[in-house]
Design a protein that fits this description.
Elements (H helix, E strand, L loop, with lengths): L8 H31 L17 H4 L5 E2 L6 E2 L7 E5 H6 L5 H5 L5 E5 L7 E5 L2 E2 L11 E5 L2 E3 L12 E8 L13 E7 L7 E9 L4 E11 L4 E12 L1 E5 L21 E3 L2 E14 L2 E14 L6 E4 L5 E4 L4 E4 L10 E2 L6 H4 L11 E17 L2 E19 L9 E19 L5 E21 L15 E21 L4 E23 L16 E18 L5 E12 L2 E2 L15 E2 L2 E14 L4 E13 L2 E6 L4 E6 L2 E16 L2 E16 L3 E2 L15 E2 L12 E12 L4 E12 L2 E2 L9 E2 L2 E12 L4 E8 L7 E6 L8 E5 L4 E11 L2
Parallel strand pairs: 7-10, 14-21
Antiparallel strand pairs: 1-2, 3-9, 4-5, 5-6, 7-8, 9-10, 11-12, 11-48, 12-13, 13-16, 14-15, 16-17, 17-22, 18-47, 19-20, 22-23, 23-24, 24-25, 25-26, 26-27, 27-28, 28-29, 29-32, 30-31, 32-33, 33-36, 34-35, 36-37, 37-40, 38-39, 40-41, 41-44, 42-43, 44-45, 45-48, 46-47
Length: 819
């Protein structure tokens, strides 16, 4: 096996883990076995019952959940994969309309927007993810939208609504999702066309952030074989963070102080989204589904969801005077209050794309997919053709405070065309197969107009920005997979396969402009000198799963899994003098390990239990570190890391209208070897920083990897009149502490915290209308989801992207048509 896995300590772990999983399953299976044995005996006839049979799912209100974790329809109970399915009702319960809120519904998942530019977001599952601080990195956890594979985190920016289901696949996904995703996949399924005419309209208002929205959808047949669905959403939010910055100057440029806050509240989001779906089903053997999703968003800048954490007031180094300037308006606490100043209009007039000095983000995206399904006897053929692109254009103050010292006007444009072909068999015999091909052709262009000091206007064009860095990236990937499935007995299945990936990348980057007044400092690469690099890599990623169904209601499985993500080149915010593309290159990332799982459904489907044990090793984990001089983030590979953990979740449908649910996850995610990790600012020799400005983080925890995540909740509906019901839900979540950034600056430790969500619904018995009061994070906890060292700040200063604090939402919904 690759890299000699399952040797030594790994070999000792698996038997012990198998014993534990078998014990769990035995406990789960015993009631089912007893029930099966009992049902084989003659039963006394009960009034109104048929032979004493257990209540069916329709009687209990339990729905059978269908997932596509292996690109074929399988029940959540029987699929031998660690997957969490979030249904439309689960999403609507707490109005989860973006990936950040959706991630909160699944233990050990953090889907976070980041405020430092770069990739714009970080997806983490079981402590494995990618940094958000470099536009050159693909996400270790991929997003799959209606079959369209996406590895760019920027798409977390937009909302997702009118969803059918979200599936979170945990651990490496080698076979079924295009290019490999070593950390997992978030698979989003939007609602499709319906056989009958129907739709809904919804409006809501969130009180704390002054957020209002409207959305709706209409769906139905055009002909007997052609259907459609149109959905749209618009929202506007003032914000949940108050910006209290006032005017502030610096010693080196007293004539051009910051005028203070351009916006009183952040993030100040405005968003419009629309989706069109066309489905053609001329017969039982063929279908064609086309989906087109577009969005436009504007807010108050990349940093608009951040706050500073430090001691005292924020301070920023004025490079030209060598003096730290204190921001008297900031308080360095996570409390919904921050201080962020705009750029002086005089400087902004000579600063391209600076929006007059006012922080802003303009984002637009188009995502489309065409899925063709054709069944030829026992073989199902699928083609998924996809195209996506987005443009993110922003200007912001990256000093994260009121001082007019660090600004950036950044543009990120990405696009990709993808084509996937798959075949799945369903023969009468014991052997089946799955196979597929995947192709991706994409590109990414970035532009950064940077400013770290007012060195004066360039005599050639009057520009005040210090440089303009351009990068052009191309990627092309070819991939193929094959899998054989052997049904050894009706209860035992062995599945094994492998995916081959070949990926090529090219980069060309350099400064198209350097302010001539900055040249003497020797900080940035020479104007007009572009550097180029090429990357190419191949990988074979095998996978094998043995699953056993002791009864029709239980599943036990063991899986050996691998994963892979190719390397490439950093796209930094500043290209240092003499720095080449080779200096910015990083290696591929791979994963290998296994997991054991047990699933069971009992008491006529009322009780569902799932458990999993896992252990994976990651080589070449791609991380981003901050280089203070010149200030930029670049990607580097940690030597190796490992995750070991256990998960368990369950739900109990006490009655059709009363459900209890709970989940717990333990995850030990640590670096096995990372001897050359970057030091944090101000770290001394006594604190472990070497003369080479590196530290040894071997044996320490990964970033955004809490050890514990525990959730529990309930939902209850009851009739209060003959036609009106009252619904009550409550869910509590506890997350233990974790690091917010890779260098483990002590300020970047996020203490454990708890959140409470609750909802109260008044609705028609047939759900034709609904009025809901929804509360999220009712404990009003301010917590961090990502962060990094403040540029030119003191060692104790970091900026933090915060999770949204308390929300209280009033929402009304009307549904119409034949549902």
């Amino acid at each position: 096996m690759r890299n000699g896995m399952f040797v030594g300590g790994r070999a000792r772990l698996l038997p012990a883990a198998m014993m534990l999983a078998t014990t769990i399953l035995a406990g789960m299976a015993a009631p089912a076995l007893a029930q099966d044995a009992l049902s084989a005996q003659p039963q006394p006839q009960q009034p109104g019952a048929a032979g004493g049979a257990a209540p069916d799912r329709a009687d209990t209100g339990v729905e059978e959940i269908i997932v596509t974790a292996r690109k074929r329809d399988e029940t959540l109970l029987q699929v031998p994969v660690a997957v969490s399915a979030v249904s439309a009702s689960d999403l609507n319960r707490y109005a989860a309309t973006d990936l950040g809120k959706i991630g909160q519904l699944v233990p050990q998942v953090i889907l976070a927007k980041s405020g430092g530019g770069g990739a714009g977001a970080s997806f983490t599952i079981r402590g494995i993810g990618s940094s958000a601080l470099d536009a050159g990195i693909d996400q270790t956890v991929a997003l799959n939208l209606d079959g369209l594979q996406i590895s760019r985190g920027r798409l977390v920016t937009q909302s997702f609504f009118d969803l059918q289901q979200v599936e979170v696949l945990k651990g490496p996904q080698a076979l079924f999702f295009g290019k490999n995703s070593p950390g997992g996949v978030v698979s989003v399924h939007t609602a499709g066309a319906t056989r009958d005419f129907e739709g809904y309209a919804r409006a809501g208002y969130e009180f704390k952030a002054d957020e209002r929205f409207v959305e709706g959808a209409v769906s139905g047949p055009i002909t007997d074989t052609l259907g459609f669905r149109l959905a749209g959403r618009g929202s506007k939010m003032a914000g949940y963070i108050r910006n209290v910055a006032g005017p502030l100057g610096i010693p080196s440029d007293p004539a051009n102080p910051s005028p203070g806050a351009a916006h009183g509240r952040d993030p100040g989001t405005r968003e419009i989204l629309g989706r069109a779906t066309i489905e053609w089903r001329p017969g039982s053997d063929f279908s064609a589904v086309f989906k087109l999703f577009g969005s436009r968003l504007r807010d108050h800048g990349e940093t608009s969801g951040t706050e500073l954490k430090c001691q005292g007031n924020p301070q920023t180094l004025d490079l030209l005077s060598g003096v730290f300037v204190q921001d008297p308006y900031g308080d360095c606490k996570l409390n919904g209050r921050r201080s962020l100043g705009a750029l002086n209009p005089v400087l902004a007039a000579g600063y391209p794309e600076s929006n007059g000095g006012v922080p802003i983000t303009r984002y637009s995206a188009v995502l489309s997919s065409l899925t063709l399904d054709y069944k030829v006897g026992p073989v199902a053929l699928t083609s998924v053709t996809g195209y996506w692109r987005y443009k993110n254009d922003s200007f912001d103050n990256f000093a994260f405070d009121a001082t007019p010292t660090v600004f950036g006007a950044n543009l990120d444009k990405s696009h990709a065309f993808t084509q996937e072909l798959r075949a799945n068999s369903s023969f009468d015999g014991p052997i089946d197969f799955a196979a597929g091909l995947y192709f991706e052709d994409g590109g990414r262009d970035t532009r950064g107009n940077g400013f770290i000091a007012n060195v004066g206007a360039d005599a050639r064009n009057g520009q005040y920005n210090n440089w303009s860095l351009l990068s052009f990236n191309k990627t092309r990937a070819y991939s193929a997979f094959g899998q054989l499935i052997w049904n050894i007995t009706p209860q035992i299945e062995l599945a094994g396969g492998v995916r081959y990936t070949h990926e090529r990348k090219r980069v060309r980057l350099g400064n198209s402009f350097v302010n001539q007044n900055l040249v003497a400092f020797g900080l940035v690469a020479t104007e007009g000198q572009f550097t180029s690099g090429r990357f190419s890599d191949d990988d074979w990623s095998p996978e094998a799963t043995l699953s056993y169904h002791p009864t029709s209601n239980t599943t036990l499985y063991g899986a050996y899994k691998t994963g892979y993500k190719s390397g490439g080149f950093s796209n930094p915010s500043i290209l240092s003098f003499g720095q080449t593309a080779a200096d910015l290159g990083f290696r591929s990332e791979s994963a290998e390990g296994g997991e054991l799982g047990a699933k069971g459904s009992f008491m006529g489907g009322r009780l569902a239990l799932n458990a999993a044990l896992y252990r994976y090793k990651f080589n070449g984990l791609q991380l981003t570190s901050f280089n203070p001089s010149p200030p930029s983030f670049t990607i580097r590979n940690a030597a190796s890391a490992r995750t070991t953990g256990a998960e368990v979740d369950g739900s109990y449908q006490i009655t059709r209208d009363f459900q209890l649910r709970a989940a717990a996850g333990y995850n030990r995610a640590k670096y096995l070897s990372f001897p050359a990790a970057p030091c944090y600012p101000g770290q001394t020799l006594a604190q472990g920083c070497t003369a080479a400005n590196t530290q040894d983080l071997s044996g320490t925890a990964l970033v955004r990897a809490p050890k514990w995540n525990v959730t529990g909740g309930f939902s209850y509906d009851t009739l209060i009149t003959t036609a009106v019901k009252l619904g009550v839900s409550g869910d509590a979540n506890y997350t233990s502490g974790y690091w917010l950034q890779e260098n483990q600056n002590p300020v970047a430790w996020q203490q454990g915290f708890a959140r409470l969500n609750a909802s109260l619904r008044l609705h028609a018995e047939n759900d034709a209308w609904e009025l809901a009061l929804i509360g999220r994070n009712l404990t009003n906890k301010y917590y961090g989801v990502a962060g990094s060292d403040k540029p030119f700040g003191t060692p104790d200063e970091i900026w933090i992207s915060i999770g949204r604090p308390r929300e209280v939402l009033l929402q009304g919904t009307v549904r119409f048509g034949n549902r």
